[in-house]
Amino acid sequence: MKLRLMPVLLTSLLSAALLFGGWYSYREFAVQEPLQKIVSAYEGVNDSHISIKRNEVTLKLDLQPGTKLRELVQYVNTEGRSAIDGRTLKLDVEQHSSELLDEYWDQAMFSVAEAMESRKYTLIPAKLDELKTQNSKYSGVTAATEIDDNNVYVSLSDGKKSKFMILPRAAATMGVWNNA
What superkingdom heads the lineage (predicted)? Predict the structure, then answer.
């Protein structure tokens, strides 16, 4: 029995094209497109780009000032449960910051880091408000904090520009060093 090279090659190429084409179509139209519609439907989302990997779904978001990140994450997790399917959700928020907001965050960062390290999350809004009373140039800055099981969300806005920070509640732990 002699195998012909051309029919075997053609069958292999057609099978591979159908297999990978079906996989790509499923991922694009059954997973990514519904999730894109869910994220785009949320109020305050200007633009979004979704990247789905084996264990992670990454949302690159362009948000309007005043958007509540915790509620957005909760909405995507509940409405997009079938599309996320056990993967971890990671947010990458595009920053539209100003010098004032950057300076405000730089001034508040040490106090916020201290509150995060000591797990006294209620100190974060107090420290952010205290900074506004100490310096009058920050009086127009609105600081909002939210918390969920995984992250602390800090949103700064001056009405036109915004800065969003996502602070993980579980800090990276140091392992035991063998030579210590």
Answer: Bacteria
* pTM strictly above 0.70: yes
Structural domain range at position 110 = 99-168
- List average pLDDT for each run of 10 residues in the chain, which is 180 residues long: 85 93 86 88 90 90 90 91 86 90 92 91 92 86 91 90 90 50
Q: Which of 72, 80, 78, 75 is nearest to 52 (CA)?
A: 80
The length of the chain in residues reads 180
Question: Checking phi first, is residue 33 left (phi over 0); if not, alpha (psi -120 to 50) or beta?
Answer: alpha
| CATH code for position 19 | 3.30.70
Residues 6+ apart with CB under 8 A from 64: 44, 45, 46, 162
In 3D space, the residue among 164, 165, 169, 129 whose CA is nearest the CA of residue 148 turns out to be: 169
17 & 44 share domain: yes
Query: According to DSSP H, which parts of the chain are helical?
Result: 5-25, 33-41, 69-79, 81-84, 99-117, 123-134
Three-class SS of residue 119?
Answer: coil
Q: In degrees to the nearest 10, what's the CA dihedral of 64, 68, 70, 71?
A: -110
Which is it for strands 142-147 and 88-93: parallel, antiparallel or unpaired? unpaired
Which residues, in sequence order, are CB contacts of 53 under 8 Å at separation 6+? Answer: 87
